[in-house]
């Protein structure tokens, strides 16, 4: 039989039947009763595929020794089992050192086709491969000891989010008034002529009109 196509998937039913019958006639098959169809039986498929040599491979595979082999997880294109050239989605990062596609902002999904971003208030631990909670009151962080963005009503002080007020029954921050600061479980007034002050010590951060802020206190402006 003269084949009209190079790829098995492009063959006509007549071409497939002819080559399969030829392989069956020459194969050493001990149990003919187990042969049902070329689509179900690995012995037949192996006989056919062994007679073919791949010249190109689709996404997710690379050509090696005349056959297509799977790329590493997360890779769309690759040149070996350890070297990716592009990733499945933009959520993966192609590491310039390892040459592999990895998830850096969240774990990989069950199908291993994409990365799942961690929710606000959590960060992705690249060692354990899970999302971990940030410090209390923090919406964006990279570890469990510091914060880069605080939730509403929290003050960013020393890399941590401090609530200027007590927490309600659900754990949400209920801030003190703008001219108060939170200390020892209660809201306390800022120093005289101070309109806003820090949660930690009550040090003034803004003053009333005609007063000047100096070293955490409000002083009467000259004149």
| Rg on CA atoms, Å | 33 Å
Largest sheet: 2 strands, antiparallel
Which stretches are low in confidence, meaning pLDDT under 50 for 5 or more residues running?
23-51
Tally the helices: 2
- Helix and strand sequence: HHEEEEEEEEEEEEEEEEEE
Secondary-structure class: mainly beta
Identify the overall geometry: elongated
Q: Any idea of the CATH class of the domain at 118-174?
A: Mainly Beta
CATH homology group of the domain at 118-174: Hormone Receptor, Insulin-like Growth Factor Receptor 1, Chain A, domain 2
Strand portion:
25-35%
The averaged pLDDT comes out at: 78
Gross CATH architecture of the domain at 118-174: Ribbon
Widest β-sheet, arrangement of strands:
1-2
How would you explain this protein's 3D organization?
- The protein is elongated.
- Strands 1-2 form a two-stranded antiparallel sheet. Strands 3-4 form a two-stranded antiparallel ribbon. The chain has a two-stranded antiparallel ribbon with strand order 5-6.
- Among the domains are: 61-101, no CATH class; 118-174, Hormone Receptor, Insulin-like Growth Factor Receptor 1, Chain A, domain 2 (Hormone Receptor, Insulin-like Growth Factor Receptor 1, Chain A domain 2, Ribbon); 176-223, no CATH class.
- The protein contains 2 helices and 18 strands.
- With 223 residues, the protein is mostly beta strands.
């Amino acid at each position: 039989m003269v084949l009209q196509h190079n790829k098995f998937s492009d063959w006509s039913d007549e071409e497939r039947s002819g080559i399969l019958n030829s392989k069956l006639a020459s194969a050493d098959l001990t149990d003919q009763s187990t042969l049902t169809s070329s689509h179900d039986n690995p012995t037949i498929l192996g006989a056919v595929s062994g007679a073919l040599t791949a010249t190109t491979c689709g996404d997710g595979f690379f050509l090696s020794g005349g056959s297509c082999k799977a790329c590493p997880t997360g890779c769309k294109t690759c040149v070996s089992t350890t070297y990716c050239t592009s990733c499945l989605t933009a959520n993966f990062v192609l590491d310039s050192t390892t040459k592999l596609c990895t998830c850096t902002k969240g774990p990989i999904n069950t199908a291993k086709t994409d990365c799942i971003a961690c929710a606000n208030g959590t960060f992705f631990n690249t060692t354990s491969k899970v999302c971990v909670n940030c410090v209390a009151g923090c919406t964006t962080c990279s570890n469990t000891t510091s914060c880069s963005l605080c939730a509403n009503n929290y003050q960013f002080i020393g890399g941590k989010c401090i609530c200027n007020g007590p927490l309600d029954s659900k754990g949400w921050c209920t801030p003190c008034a703008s001219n108060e600061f939170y200390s020892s479980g209660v809201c306390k007034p800022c120093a005289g002529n101070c309109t806003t002050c820090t949660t930690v010590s009550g040090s003034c951060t803004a003053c009333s009109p005609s007063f000047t802020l100096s070293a955490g206190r409000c002083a009467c402006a000259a004149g």
